[in-house]
Design goal:
- The protein has about 170 residues and is mainly alpha-helical.
- It folds into 2 domains: about 45 residues, no CATH class; about 100 residues, no CATH class.
- It is about 60% helix and about 5% strand.
- The chain has 8 helices and 2 strands, in the order αβααβααααα.
- The radius of gyration is 18 Å and the shape is elongated.
Length: about 170
């Protein structure tokens, strides 16, 4: 079973070295997987990448050449791009600035197929999201500047829009 935990690392290009560096960045936080699903791009089928996967005991499953859109990674990329486009248009910021908020929203939304959010499956608990922080602030109010509260409201609204969009397009 897949946790559907989203990860995205901005890279300048998609050559084998860049892909391996990005994978190592993820693996340094999440550990090395037993299996990984990839597309058939040369950055995932090159000798260097193949040797990398073999050395770390990672079984590679490639998506169908004839039907790449069936690959869950490709579906995730489409959803991620749509969410980033919406957030970038709303905030006026570039996609790299909006990436962390988008990933947070995606990892905290409950999936119909699993009944859990990806963060619950990976971390074993729900994450403290901006919504939780806001709730904690209301339940246990302390003196704080209104700008902090406004910022948290903004984060909550941004995350809710991402989650709603994800649910509609899952």
């Amino acid at each position: 079973m897949s946790s559907k935990y989203p990860e995205a690392i901005p890279v300048a290009d998609i050559n084998s070295v860049s892909v391996i560096d990005a994978l190592l960045e993820v693996f340094s936080r999440m550990g090395f997987p037993r299996e990984i699903q990839c597309d058939n791009g040369t950055s995932f089928t090159s000798q260097l990448t193949t040797e990398f996967f073999e050395r770390f005991g990672i079984k590679v499953t490639h998506s169908s050449v004839h039907h790449p859109q069936s690959n869950p990674v490709e579906r995730f990329h489409r959803t991620l791009k749509r969410l980033l486009k919406v957030l970038c248009l709303q905030s006026g910021e570039d996609w790299e600035k909006n990436l962390p908020a988008t990933l947070l929203a995606l990892c905290t939304v409950t999936h119909e197929s699993t009944g859990f959010s990806p963060s619950e499956l990976v971390h074993g608990k729900k994450l403290r999201t901006p919504e939780v922080l806001l709730y904690e602030h209301w339940v246990n109010p302390q003196e704080s500047e209104s700008s902090v509260t406004e910022y948290v409201f903004e984060l909550v609204n941004r995350m809710r829009r991402c989650q709603d969009f994800w649910r509609l397009n899952e």
